Structures are given as structure tokens and as C-alpha cells.
Amino acid sequence: MSNLASHKRKFSVFLIVSEILFLIAFAALVRYDDDAAPKIVQHEADNSAKVVVKQEPDTQKQEADISADINPAGDEPAADDPQEESQIEDSAGRKLNGLYPMFQDVHVMIFVGFGFLMMFLKNYGLSAVSYNFLLSAFVIQYAIIVGGIAKMVVAKIDGGSLSAIYIGVDTLFESDFTCAAVLISFGAVLGKLSAFELLLMSTFEVLIFKINETIGVHYIKAADMGGSMFVHVFGAYFGLAVSRVMNEMNHRNRPTEGSDYKSDMFSMIGTIFLWIYWPSFNSALATDEERVRAVVNTYIALCASCVITFAISAMTEKDGKVTIAHVQNATLAGGVAVGTSCNMMIHPAGAMFIGLAAGALSTVGFAYIQGFLDRVIGLHDTCGVNNLHGMPGLLAGLSGIVAAAFASDESYGDATRVFGDFKDGVDQALRQTGALLITFALAITGGLLSGLIIRVLPTSSLTKQQYYNDSDFFTDVHFDDIGESQSINKQDESNI
Amino acid sequence: MSNLASHKRKFSVFLIVSEILFLIAFAALVRYDDDAAPKIVQHEADNSAKVVVKQEPDTQKQEADISADINPAGDEPAADDPQEESQIEDSAGRKLNGLYPMFQDVHVMIFVGFGFLMMFLKNYGLSAVSYNFLLSAFVIQYAIIVGGIAKMVVAKIDGGSLSAIYIGVDTLFESDFTCAAVLISFGAVLGKLSAFELLLMSTFEVLIFKINETIGVHYIKAADMGGSMFVHVFGAYFGLAVSRVMNEMNHRNRPTEGSDYKSDMFSMIGTIFLWIYWPSFNSALATDEERVRAVVNTYIALCASCVITFAISAMTEKDGKVTIAHVQNATLAGGVAVGTSCNMMIHPAGAMFIGLAAGALSTVGFAYIQGFLDRVIGLHDTCGVNNLHGMPGLLAGLSGIVAAAFASDESYGDATRVFGDFKDGVDQALRQTGALLITFALAITGGLLSGLIIRVLPTSSLTKQQYYNDSDFFTDVHFDDIGESQSINKQDESNI
Amino acid sequence: MSNLASHKRKFSVFLIVSEILFLIAFAALVRYDDDAAPKIVQHEADNSAKVVVKQEPDTQKQEADISADINPAGDEPAADDPQEESQIEDSAGRKLNGLYPMFQDVHVMIFVGFGFLMMFLKNYGLSAVSYNFLLSAFVIQYAIIVGGIAKMVVAKIDGGSLSAIYIGVDTLFESDFTCAAVLISFGAVLGKLSAFELLLMSTFEVLIFKINETIGVHYIKAADMGGSMFVHVFGAYFGLAVSRVMNEMNHRNRPTEGSDYKSDMFSMIGTIFLWIYWPSFNSALATDEERVRAVVNTYIALCASCVITFAISAMTEKDGKVTIAHVQNATLAGGVAVGTSCNMMIHPAGAMFIGLAAGALSTVGFAYIQGFLDRVIGLHDTCGVNNLHGMPGLLAGLSGIVAAAFASDESYGDATRVFGDFKDGVDQALRQTGALLITFALAITGGLLSGLIIRVLPTSSLTKQQYYNDSDFFTDVHFDDIGESQSINKQDESNI
Known about the structure:
Three copies of one chain form a homotrimer.
Chain A: H1 3-29, E1 30-32, E2 40-42, E3 51-53, H2 61-70, H3 91-117, H4 125-157, E4 165-167, H5 169-189, H6 195-219, H7 228-245, H8 261-283, H9 288-315, H10 324-329, H11 333-337, H12 347-377, H13 385-405, H14 409-412, H15 416-419, H16 425-456
Helix pairs in contact in A: 1-4, 3-4, 3-5, 3-8, 4-5, 4-6, 5-6, 5-7, 6-7, 6-16, 7-13, 7-16, 8-9, 9-12, 12-13, 13-16
């Protein structure tokens, strides 16, 4: 068995062992939540009014409280209200009707958006979309367990108890948000880590992600509706820290680290779907008028960052031409930068201003800052996640601090709808600041440690020829010296 | 007129005659159902309560009953409840709000998912997506008529009467499910039948599909929420039977029966959209908490089958590399295999187990079983539908039998919500078994007969050069000897 | 600074100045509407009933009335009903649940549908999707301002007053509809205008679009649910008029004005998504049973036009082959042609007939009429928008006139639900006729004038080599003599 094959064997064994452990954990701990569990229906004489008795009503009370913490304003109207027991029968259906389309939008962002956006490398498209697929499917299962255990631990610490991991509609969002953080980190190391190393990175990252999120949301009570701090800042700086630690001179200036005409087109599929559905990502867990506001603000910020990206990109080139990598990425920065404050009273013009600032910052990042960081501190960032997620995420955190500082019950009707435990603007601004700093620190520290562990483990890192190259992972993919795919003798694998 | 042109003329004539017949049938038989027909609104003094008098209230009562049979648990809350006449005005709106987004998800699966998944052949991508488009648009219209007549016949047999074919929101799903079966069959014969032959195949298949579905759902009363038996098993074995009958030695080992680097990327568009929206396919017709359960179970099974596919695929190659065809297909097997039982109380761990089993089975199918069947019984399966739809569909049927055997009113609250006419677990398990066996038998028999009829009809089958080749059907598409497209002198056809 | 770079500088300056003006206008005029503004919630003792006091209840009353005019039947159930003040809290949530998924469908049509459909040119794919992206993001912001000011002016003329531009859920649709018109015009001049010229065209077009829409909807009170007159006819003939004025002999018969095998595949992504989501476009602003009818009618018309396109396309070629450009475009004509009448009582067979007529007309347009118009009146139409949007849009207008002529309160329950101020069929048919004629006249006149202005402005029009060529606008894109992309030495721009 060659060294490569041995490495690949570890990959298979890791996945199989993981799935067995997931299966055991699911069997032992995971249960359907109230939205998915059967109801005992007592058919009465008057069939226009059914009385529904919920099963296990007490075990989930604590769960509901914690869930409300994770998403301060996300309590679905009346679903758990004891006063409305008799109407609960179709509350699961109503909840699903409202949330499911937005979940599917987010799901498209995770699997199509991120997956195709990263297909821009000319010889790494199949790996990009496939690793994106594999990592997400892995992280979803793993995050259900880690996130559920985190809730059980928090319940214990808070003096309550939670006997199981309950899954339902809310789980769908929580898992996809965790995926987003991992995929952002993936972008920083795209083409430089093997599949096995990426799985190890994800394993560490999800743990630290959940710790950070629990601290920020449950204990610090910071608001971050679109996850710009907990997802984007965390994912970007975790990934960049891993990239720095894994840094090798021989993955630089490889002829395969480039896009070609067709790979840029595939990448645009990812860009456009991310851009379209971003309002769903930012608003999914908001309710009522707050949700409409989150949609509208995100939508405006995205339009502004798209337009300004073209303007600035043309200014960064002597001949006034536009760089397609800017169009593929910086157009999205408005969605990141407005994520924390999208449900706050930032005014439509405020959303537009944030979008303009983010698009300009991101384009400048791609044109100048990325190369500078690579030369000066040896920070190689394949997809430019610092430009799209890192700096715009920090901008989002700052916007959230400012918006929180000006918040009051007068301007919000009831500010606890947006901020959870709202006391006053200054207090909330300090909470926002604390969450941002802790997120940044945990991401960098966690990423450095994870990178170091991966380096010392016997994972057979990629060699020079294997960087940014699909032929390392896939059968029947071959490239010639100039990076053109060679497929003349390739037969459909499924028809031997 | 050459032989080819004569064949093409039949294609046009067939389509035009079909559309004229569809138009006549629609004019004579099809009416808007209650959800789409106008309401007579009586504006009263108190404008907060409108009294609505439905038009044709009696003609559709029978329809509603039959529709409830086709989807045992799918009765929309209170929409047809005579007690709630006064609230009916916006029930159509509410029903559409709940169902329409899921319908559009399914619609994307049919036209984008299946269409692009089948673009993997390097010289047949335009045909794959175009035939997929044409067959589906044809089948939707045809299935409305065939399905509607089936309901009228059943009403007559059951002693009632139904005077028209009513179309509305439910029609959208029924037609797309029928399309799915036809498109699965299309996958088995991809590249080997001409457009005209495919239309003939579809014409026969829809008839037998509707007969089988009516037997299984209305008479046997088997539960199959995601259609894994009635759609996947039926479609796969019908198509495989046609493929066996149409079997020719000269469509084997053609240099064009293979994928290339770019065609594999287009195919991933199909895979990813199918994977994302599969929970909508399986849960669309469920209601309330049963719907949430169907979503969650399908979602878990899909994640598990994705991860295990990568693991097993790497194990089937000596050098530990992964085969992209496995990623494109076997990752989806969990969605098929959990389809019958997704709304049953299979526990989240049960869903995960089914997904793991299906992903492994499907990957092994692609790696070993498909080639074996081709060599031993001459069964050529272009897309490997036996691996993705056939065997995982049988697994779904078995899972449904087992889950039904353990069902009880205690565990389901009210088991009739999931199983329709539920008596006890053993009875229901027998019904599930009967439906699976009849589906399998009708699919094979129907496919063999349809294939024989197509063989004897003067349809000018494809010649050796025309297999897996877009240049047979499209103007201005040319390939050189090694399968590279030749487009140098091609002008935009729309600008002569 | 070269001439080209100088031109590009104008492009950047135009965008930056526009965004500054947008920002000022948003700060001065734009406010969240009731759906997005905070509510003052008075928590009462009985927490099962919350009393909500709306902020600024009077300022928006006028707005609501005008909005109802723009969409005669689009009054959301009870959202503004003073009788139901106490239930308003989650009305924003419910409204969003119903409308948001359809908005996202339309959003996909605008950015993915139009964007990828226009990628068919082999050397212009990146420009097509990027200009589509830029123009839409620009038009959304601009249309919010122009549309809002139009409402303020109309309120003044009508004797009322409206103090701000209110944005919310409805804004999302209005802006996307305006984008659609601009993108249709873009299709007529695709590859022939520079980015700067396209922005100028859009600037003029949105003004005239909003004037025409206000006349047609608010004053003439014509019904046009799917916007086939106000969007498709207007966009097509405006763009064609610009194309005629900008007409140059040297953009004809360029070797780059053609598709290739892969670019045709990308284009199919656009076609399929447009086709799938078209029912959402046509029905988004309808309510209740009228919305279901709009969905079903559009769905049937699309199926019919898809099938007939294949049949007619094969008949237009001597060898019976199908032209992929017909499949990419004419299959969609049913959605355009049924747009005006989709919510009317046209019967399912009527929808099918309209779809068949539109598909046939559009295919014949591509095969014969487009070349004829080019030769005879020098009308060059890159995407064939006359065939897909122009003639089918006129057919839609005619269908609307006929359907309106037969309308009555008996057949519609209450015809004002569909037609707004319905008097009788003849009156409404005259209104429909007037709106169609005015739309056609304003589109042609506006397009000619806009084209003339662009010609006389110093916009440095494209030279011979720059037509249909991405290398004019993007860095690092190069094509050789036969149009193959040259990317050997291209490095990822983001990693210098």
C-alpha cells in the first residue's frame, strides 16, 4: 500500500467510525422535538374543535427556554403558549410554512452558493464542490450532537436539566449556520489541505464554534441576527489561522492556482445564488416586522455593495477593467456587513451606507490587502475570505455596536424583541463589543491550535503536485502541463 | 426526404397531434377546483365577516374523497370542512402559501435536478437537459388527463360519480411525481433512444404508473409519502425493462459514453439541487408534525448517505481515490430509501441508519453490481438508476414494511394520520408488502411490453454513430473523432 | 490615459455619483413601511391578547390606497382592516410568509434566469451575467426612488399627500418587475453597448417605465397581473428601439456573435429556472383563489409552449433537427403570453391554447421573422427579445382584451377582485386596449429618444473588436482568433 493509498484509507476509516459514533449518539440522545413528535388527538363530538394533549410536555420546557436564548427574538408567536394549547395542532405546520422556505434558501446558499463559488480554480472544481458537500453533510450531523450537548451542559450549569437533544425545524437552521462557518474556513485553505485534514479541521472547529456561540448568545447576550460575528468573523479568522500554521512555500505560485474562463462561469453560479438568498440567511430567525426589516436592510446593503464593487474594481486597474474575482466575492460583502444590525433600526439609508462601505472595503482587500498580508506575514488566503468574511464581519460587529448604543425602547417599540435582555444602549453596546472581541480571540487561538494539531498528526499533507488539483482525489481526472483536462480515454465510470 | 428527416417528421407530428388531443380533452373535461374557482362573495354589513358561498359545492365532494385516498394523510386542515364555510375565503391562499414553496422545490428537482444530473455524458448534455424538459412538459399535461380519468373511473367503480377533472394546487404535485417516474426510466435508456421513442415510452409509462398508483394507494391503502415505491421503484424497473428489450450490442463501449471534466461539473448542479430539495419531495403532502418529521428524517438520511458514499467510494479503488459518478448519485440514495417511512416513527437514528445503508448499497451498486448485470443479463443502465432508484427504492419499501409492522395508535397519537385506514401493524405491513410486490411486477411487465411495442413500431432507432450524441438531434452541434465539440464556424442561429 | 481607460473612468464615476445620490435620497425620503416598522406593544394582564398600537398610522393610509391601485386585487387579507387592529401584530409575519417565497422565485428569475440565459454567446458569458447583476442592483435602488416619487406625485395630483417613500415587502416585487423590463431591453442590445451605455439606457428606461405603469395601472386601470404589457412589451420594444438607433453595420456577422457547446449549456440554466419560477412571477401579487388560478394557468401555458416549440423547431429545419436557441427561448413564450390574463377566467384549455400559440409564434419568430427584420429594417436583436417578449407580449395584451370583454360579475364572483374598478366587459376591454397601445407607443418613442441621447453623448461606443467580447470589460480574459479562451498564463487575480 502506497503512502497515498494509506492516507486515503485513513479518510475512509475516519468517516465510517464517525458515522458509527453519530449513530450511537443519535440513538442514545436525539429525540424529535414538539414540532415533529406525534400528538395525541382526542376526537370530540364537535369536530370543529380538536383538543390536543402534547406528549412529554415538561421535558422540553427547558429546551424552549434555551432555544429562545440562542435566538433572543426568535420565539415563534404563541407556539408554546400554554394559553393556546387547543390551537397547537397545526402550529407545527404553521411554523414550518413560515420557516421552511427560508431554510431551503439557506440550504441552497450552503451547498450551491459556497460550493460553486469555490469552483473558480481551474483544476480544482470537482474537489471544491465535493468537499463542500462532504464537509457540510458531516458537520450537520456532528453539529446536531455537539450543539445538543452544549444545550444540555448549559441547562445543567443554569440549574435546570435537559434530558435529550431535541431536533425539529430550528435544528435545520442551527446546523446550516455551523456549516457556513466551517465552509468559510475551508475557503481560506482551499486546495492546500487534503480531505482528511479538512475533516479534522472541521471536527475541531465545530467544538470551538459552539463554545463561542454559547458564550456570546447565552451568557453575553449579544445580538447577531445574521451571524456576522459568530459565523463570518469566527469562520474567517479560524480558517486564516489554520492557513498560517499550515503555511508552506510550495503551495505558492503554482500554475494551477488560477481560474479559467469556464471555471469563472461556474463560480458565478455560486455568487449569484448567495447574493439572491442572503436576505433569508440574515432574517430567517427573526419574527414579524423585525423579519421584514432584516430582509429589506439586507437587500439594500447587497444592492449597494454590488454596484460599488464594479466601480472600485475598475479603479484598481490601470486600463479600467474589472476583475471577475471582485465581482464573484465583494458584491456579497454588504450581506455580511449588515448581518449583525439587519434587524435593528438602522434606517434604509444606514443599510445602504453599510453596503457601500463593505463593498469598497472588500474590493480594496482583494486588490491590495490580500497580497500585502501574504508577502508580509505569510498569510495565504485562497478564496480571499478575509476580504469577504473577515473584514466585512468586523465591520458588521462595529455596526452592531453603534446601532445598539443608540437603541431604546422608544425607537424599537420594545427593544427586547431585538436584543433579548435589553437594559439600555450603552450596556448592550458593551455586550456587542465583548462578543466581537471574544469571537475574534477564540477564532484565532482555536485556529492556531487546530492547525498545529493537524500538522503534528500523521496526515500525509499534500505534495507540490497535489495542490489545487482534482487529480489527487478523483479517479479518471488528469491534467496536462498547462492545466487542460485530459479526458480522451475516459469512459463513464459507472459502465465498466 | 431522408430516413432521418422522416423520423424527425414523425416526432413533430406526434407532438402536434398530442397537443391537439390535450386541448380537446382539457376543453371537454378539465375545470378549476375549489381552490382556483371564483367565490361568490356576499358583502354583509359587518365587513369583518364575509360569507362565502362556494360554486359547484357538490360536484367536488367525491373528488375531495378520492384525493384524500391518494394522499391518506394529506387532508389540508379544515379547507373542506363544512363547519368552517365562513372561513373558506382565504383557505385557498393559506393552502397555497403552505404548499407552493414545496412544489417549487420539487419543480426544481424535476427540471434542474434530473435535467442537469443527466448532463454527465460529454457529448449528450444538450439532449439530456432538453429531453428532460420536453418529456416533463409533455407528461405534466398528459398526466393531468390520465390521472383525472383514473379518478373518474375509480369514482364510478366505488358507486359515486365525478363529472370533471379538477385542477388546482394538488395537481401540481401529482404531475411532478409522475414526471419523476418517467425521468428515472429515461435515465436507464439515456442516449440510446431517440426523442420519438422516448415520447412513446412516456405515453405507455404514465398509463401503467397511474394504474399502479391507484391500486396501491386507493385499494391496497399502502403508505408511501415520498413515493419511493410508486415513483422510484416503478420508474427504475420500468426503465430497466425497456432498456433490456431495446438492448443492442452497438450502444456499448462507444467512445461517447463517458463524461469529461466540464460535463461532470454540470452534473453536480443536478446532484446538489436534488440533494437540497429532497426533504420537500418527501414531505410535501404530509401535514403538521408529520411533515416536520418527514423533513427531519429525510434531511438526516441524506447527510448520512452523502458521507458514507465518499467513504465507500474511496474503498472501491486500489489507490483510494473517489469516483465522481458515486458522488453525483449515491449521495442521494438516502433520500430514496427513507421515502416510504419518512413520516413514520422511525426515530432520528433510524433515519440515519437507513441513509447509511442506502449510500453504501448504492455505491457498491455503481462499483460492482452495475457492471455485473450488464455482463451477465445484458442489462445496460446508462445512469445507473438501479443503484440510485431501484435498490434504494426496494430498501425503502422494506423499511416501510418494518416501520408499519411496529406502528400502533399509542406510538403515533393517531396512526390513521400517517397510514389512512389503519387497523393494526401486521395488517398494514401486509398492505405495504403487497403494494411493493405489485409495483415491482407491474413495472417490469409494463416496461417489457412497452419496449417490445417500441421495437416493432417503425421508429427508426438510433444508429451506432447517434448514441450518446447531441449532433443527432440538434443543429450546429458537431464533435470531432475524440469527442471535442467543433464550434469554430458556428454562428448564433438566431441571427441569420 | 487612453481613450478606453477614460471611458472606463466615466463608468466608475457614474456609479459612485449615483450611489451618493441614492444615499441622499434614501436618507431624505425613504422610511420602513408598516410591515417593517416597530410596533408599540402594550403587554396586558391577559398575555394571550396583545394590543398593538401602530406607529404613524395616518401617514401610510394614502400609501396603502395607492398601492392598492398599482395592484388592484392585491390587497392582503385584513392587514389594514381597522376592525382587526388587535390581530395586526403578526400580520407582517404572515404577509411575509405568503409573499417572500414567491419574491425569491422572482429574484432567481432576475439574477439567475435572465443572467444565465444571456450567457449563450461564447465569448461574452462573463459580461452577460455580470452586467445583468450590475444593472439589476443599480435599478433596484433607483426604482425604489423613482417609483416612490411617482407615488408621491400621484398622491398630490389626486388631492392627497404622501410624505415619504415607504419600503417593505411590496417594494421587493415592484423593483424586480422594473429590473425585468430593463433586462429584456438589455437582451436586445446584448454585446453591442458598453457598460456605461447600458447604465445610461437603464437610467432613462426606468423613468419611462414608471410613467407608463402609473398611467396604465392607476389612471387607465388596466389589469396586467403578470406584467406582460407593462414589463414585457415595454421592455422589448424599448430595447429594440435603442438597438435600431445604435445600429452599426460592424456589429453584424462578427465571428464572436455565436454560441458554443458549453455556453449553450450555461444558457440552459437560465432557461430552466425562468421556466420553473414563471408561475411565481405571474401570480405573486394575486390573492387567494385568483392566485391559484394564476399559478395553474401559467403552468399549463408553459408546458404547452415547451412542447410545441420542439415540434415547430424541428419543422423549420430541412433535416428535422432542433435549434437549441429555440429551446432556450421559445419554450418560455407561454409564460409571457398568458401573463395578462392568467388570473382571469380563461379556462385551463384557454391557457393551453395561449401557450401553444405563443410557443409557435415565438419559434417562427426566431426561425424567420428575426432575420427578416434585420435585413429589411436593420433591426438587430441579439437575444431575439421580439420573439420571446415582444410578440408574445402583444399576444398577452390581446388575450387580456378578449378575456376582459367576456368578464362579468357572474363569472368572476366579484369581478373587481381581478379588474379593480370593473364596470362591464366592454369598458374593461377598452381600458386594456388603451394600456396596450400606450405602452407600445411609449416604449418605441422612449427607446428611440434614449438611443439618440446615448449616441450623441461622448460614451466611446464599442469598436469592432469589442462587440460580444468579454476581454473588453474584464482583466485577464483573452480569446484567440477562433474564439477559444486563452488562459494558460492566467493566475488567480486574488493571489498576487
